[in-house]
Design a protein that fits this description.
The chain has about 120 residues and is mainly α. The chain has four helices and three strands. Strands 1-3-2 form a three-stranded antiparallel sheet. Helix 2 (about 30-40) packs across helix 3 (about 45-55). The radius of gyration is 26 Å and the shape is elongated.
Length: about 120
């Protein structure tokens, strides 16, 4: 007998994102609970938890239209989010490098006119 182990939460999240990227449609939770077990092996009992965690992290968009709640995620949005994050990090690196240069200049100015002393403790 082979023991089938369940998917970890990260595996479920990545498989759910794959499903939404492949389908490129809007789904209700009920539809996802039917589709995810068949296509990606995510148990229907954990679909709601996985979708909610992805919504909380901003990876899946959601909107309530009337009494229905729709979920979707498109690959283009993921690309835009990654590009924006990369740009923000590049700006952060430039700011940090400029702060480092200023601190090094201040340190060099502070060292001028001072001689190094060696202190011996007995």
């Amino acid at each position: 007998m082979s023991k089938k182990r369940g998917l970890s939460i990260e595996e479920k999240r990545s498989k759910m994102m794959e499903l939404l990227y492949e389908k490129k449609e809007c789904f209700q939770l009920k539809e996802l609970e039917k589709i995810a077990p068949k296509e990606k092996g995510i148990t229907s009992m954990s679909v709601k938890e996985v979708v909610q965690s992805l919504v909380d992290d901003g990876m899946i968009d959601t909107d309530k239209i009337g009494t229905s709640v729709y979920f979707w995620a498109f690959p283009s949005k993921a690309l835009i989010v990654r590009k924006r994050k990369q740009d923000d990090l590049a700006i952060n690196v430039k700011e940090t490098e400029s702060k480092l240069r200023v601190c090094e200049e201040r340190l060099n100015l502070a060292r001028q006119g001072r001689e190094e002393t060696i202190i011996y403790f007995v």
